[in-house]
Amino acid sequence: MARIQLCILIEVFQIKYRPDIDGLRTIAVVSVMLYHAKITVAGGHFLPGGYLGVDIFFVISGYLITTLLMTELDRTGQLSILNFYERRVRRLLPALLVVMLASLPFAWRFLLPEQLIDFSKSLVYSLLFASNFYWDHSLQQYGAESALYKPFLHTWSLAVEEQYYIVFPLLLFCIYKWGRAQLVTILSLGILVSLVYAQWMTGRDQSFSFYMMPTRLWELLAGSMCALFLLDGRFRGSDSLPGKLMPSVGLLLILGSFLSFQLDGHHPGFITVIPVLGTVLIIAFRRERDWVTRALSFPLMVYLGLLSYSLYLWHYPIFAFGRMMDMTPSIADKGLWIALTVFLSVFTYYVIEKPSRSRGFPIKILGPILLSLSLFIIFVSLYWIKADGIPSRGEYLRDLLQASKKITVFQNGVDCLSGNKGPPFPASQSCVFNYSPGAPTLVLVGDSHAASIAESVRVLAKGNQLNFMQVSEIGCPHVGGALDAYCKNRSAAITDVLKQVENPKIIYISRLPLYLEQEAFDNQEGMREPEKIFFKKGFNEKSDPGQRGLDVVTTLRSWAEAGYDLVVVYPVPEQAFHVIQSLSWHSPPITSVDQLPTLTTSYDVFKRRVASSYEALDQLHGPRIGRVYPEKLFCRQESGRCIASESERLYFAYDNHVSPLGADLIVRQVANELGLKVPDSFRQ
């Protein structure tokens, strides 16, 4: 991370060491670790804004790199680009390779084939310092697992910094040589353009804005501007009375951000200026006797700052594999993860980091070692990818889980769930299967929950000599009013779509509790859905809950009043965990049916969660409206539990999405409501 440059500056140009920078790194890395640990205090997450530690690292990186480069330019008039990149390799790659090598056996043990492929791709992209591109793409796909289970997700920030290191030295050299007088102006313009672009892009594609260098560049340049002012001997801001207060103000801005910010649809953007400005104030207005400087220079703070790169590298895979071993970790478990992270970081710092950055370790020796290890990791990763994730590991469980995965409906090679494995498409281009021209059409409408039962509905239609149409999009309830923010105009478009098909019979299902409550699900038993930064902007747009429910009623009622038969599938139980993951990570490994656990959630929690959804849907009345209640299929009044899986009967696959068995059970009830014959292939 950002901390890696300071010792190089001292060694090369005898720049004065600033222990407070190490202390600032400690604040950054500890906040990130605590945020990723997801420690709950009084029903909420401790340090909800801890993710902003990465933004602090960006500012420090910009400051240190610019100080290094400008000092070399001022003293020699030149830049040794090769030496610069050699130092980056010495500081970044050795520790990263060690963490990757240590992660391989755990990936082999815990990851399912698809997960192992994903893991392998992340290693390759990380070694190419392009993992931010990979995560921007992969985490937007439907069914993307929680980011907490991606061992190398955190390398996105290393990729951003490396991309900055590639571009910035060359840009700075050109400006220094041919436009030095305009250097501050150019960098200021860069900050402004990047910040405005980040704010604009966050509202349109938050994943891109979160992971990509152009929207993070202003944070790095803020550190660069700080370096330029400190290198200018005329800067005396710290001698004034306001200047003396700036470090305290900066620390308050950072800590206040940690305690009050949430990872939502506004970051990165204008709101991110607060912690970035706080970091700049601490760096720029440092005074030897200031209490903030003294606190940051405390020996323990400095020592942890020296370990910060290793701490950052180790913590995420340790936390990820720890969650795989126990999906409901206790505070003690998380404390053990943190202790293990510190222990391995101390080892890595002294055994790997310090020797590899020493000039006594010639690059002629270090280079081939790093290249060999990199090629080995790439070879293993590519082999795992080509071998489809080595599905032969755990054959019994593999076959069971494979049979329980959602069956996706395709037409002409295109996924019928809009926005899943391709860009969203309009409702007018929805998949239509004309099995019996002139016959009625079963029109399935909804979000990814609709896609989970789509194959069963298609089989139902074909078996009854009906046609089938799937109108579904990820995160889209297809409801007008306030909820139209999730997928603009798709609700209105359905009116025209229904007119284009023969005698439509509508089946509606979506994850209404999410849209009405506007909150991720907490099963009150230690499992809570994590924040997902790839949620659409509409997820964060608050509106009156009663109005949202009324919008649902108004939309569905309009279909019934238009003369269409309508079957409403009420909400399915949510789990806040993945059944497939839970079984694949079970310890000891499952090798027979006798070892299969029963996975359940609270029936009472379910009832509270769906209360507003039931209240809305119960307002629908009419002879052409049918209802299906999944809770009658999956929940048991006598035990007070909702069943996600029992023995070899997996009702759910990923979180709240039903498996093929669960889909057959639900669509069997839909068939009864519509008076259709249940296909013989449906399981009971």
Q: In words, what does this structure look like?
A:
This protein is elongated. Mean pLDDT is 88; it is low at 1-13 and 533-540. It is built from 26 helices and 17 strands. The strands form 5 sheets. Strands 5, 6, 7, 8, 9, 10 and 12 form a 7-stranded mixed beta sheet that branches. Strands 11, 13, 14 and 15 form a 4-stranded antiparallel beta sheet that branches. A two-stranded antiparallel sheet has the order 1-2. It folds into 2 domains: 2-386, no CATH class; 407-573 and 603-639 and 660-674, Rossmann fold (3-Layer(aba) Sandwich), CATH 3.40.50. The two termini are 54 Å apart. By secondary structure, it is an alpha/beta fold.
Largest sheet: 7 strands, mixed
Helical content class: 55-70%
Spatial separation of the terminal alpha carbons: 54 Å
Total number of domains: 2
The best one-word shape is elongated
Mean pLDDT: 88
Counted by DSSP, the helix tally is: 26
Rg = 28 Å
Q: Given the helix and strand composition, which structural class is it?
A: alpha/beta
What percent strand?
A: 5-15%
Unreliable segments of 5+ consecutive residues: 1-13, 533-540
Number of strands: 17
Summarize this, please?
The chain is 56% helix and 9% strand. It is α/β, with parallel strands linked by helices.
Question: Could you list some keywords that capture this structure?
Answer:
elongated, disordered N terminus, 26 helices, 56% helix, 684 residues, alpha/beta
